[in-house]
Predict the structure.
Amino acid sequence: MKEFDIIIIGGGVSGSSTALNLSKKGYSVLVIEKEKVQNIKPCAGGMASSMKQFLPLDIETVIESKIRNVEFTWKASDKVIADLSGESPFWIINRDKLDLLLLDKALKYGTEILRPATVEKIIKESNKWIIHCSNKYKYKSEFLVIADGSQSKWAGHFNLGPRRPRFANTIALRLKGMGNIPKDSVRFEFGFVKYGFAWAFPLKENVNIGLGTFINNSLLEDEEKNNKIIKSFGFEDLSFKKITKKLRIWNGFHKLNGDKVLAVGDAASLCDPFLAEGIRPALISSFYAAESIDQCLSRQTDNLNYYSKNINNEWSKSMAWGRRIAQVFYRFPKTGYQLGVKRKTAPKRIAQILSGEMSYEDIAKRVIKRLLTKSEN
Ligand SMILES: Cc1cc2nc3c(=O)[nH]c(=O)nc-3n(C[C@H](O)[C@H](O)[C@H](O)COP(=O)(O)OP(=O)(O)OC[C@H]3O[C@@H](n4cnc5c(N)ncnc54)[C@H](O)[C@@H]3O)c2cc1C
């Protein structure tokens, strides 16, 4: 039976970047991916450039747009434009290409990949993982990383993350041409989708459009309304192929590691419950996953607890506020738009959130401080 230091289940952005981070450190890694070839990902590819610090390689070749403005609309009007100051703090990357780039680089560093294959059974024997795959082969490893995305089968099996995951319902489509979306702008439309919003992110020659609902498990079944939204982005030809996906979103502070096993990315329920940002937590979790496993393999520590602690500090504290904001904003979106988006300083703050400069926690603390000062006066 072939043995590896680490086996990773899932070869998306979190699995591939964990593989690259670990193989760069010299460890033997096997990625098990269920798809034969990479399908088009529904992800719109919006990403804060500040994430460079967590990227294990240069991704310039997969950046398709560098964003200077963020546009907000309410029912296709009442537009607010936020100028992203500084040097291109927000990028639109081609997600399919990013995952391939990460995986290719990991393979160059010695990672092996098994695809298409699914994991059927996992057992522990003499403190090592024995992974039984659909190709009837068995593989052995010291550590196991769960990176099988929003429909994760294995996170729950190992009690990693929330016992009852919460999901956003999404629809994604990629349309040829730019519609009325400027090349260097992204648009967020808040007035049409109940309990959520719609977005349009420009690639080189296409626009990624998405619709998402974030609370009350609200569905996106009103075809007429969906078409109206797409038309509002400047597209008349509605003969598009759409992908629907249930996206696992952040739902509380939870342990994300067990004994020699941890979960990263969507499998760990890290996706932002307000704006569906999942690439950033995928990269952050991959980075800390590799650090924690490295520390164990180099005998600096004997457990992976540092991993859960770091994710809670670096990401979940902010997401707790993101979830509160989502609960209020999506219940009272009109008021939310007037007070949250049309407020003089709001566009700047939202731009700072998107660029990774500020967290929801920072914003919430500012608001609380303002309220306290007002009530004291
Ligand atoms: C419509 C939409 C738009 C989005 N837009 C953005 C955006 O603009 N910016 C942003 O930051 N985030 C966005 N996100 C979120 C982002 O796409 C996810 O958070 C991100 O893809 C998580 O990466 P992952 O590697 O954890 O999961 P995935 O990318 O889902 O990868 C999981 C991988 O595991 C494989 N797999 C699954 N089960 C098994 C199994 N049993 N065995 C082996 N392999 C398995 C899958 O085939 C897949 O390759 C969006 C999401 C959606 C749905």
Notes: The first helix runs from residue 13 to 24. Residues 9-15, 32-35, 42-47, 118-119, 147-150, 153, 170, 172, 201, 210, 245, 247, 265-267, 271, 276-280, 282 surround flavin-adenine dinucleotide (CB under 6 Å).
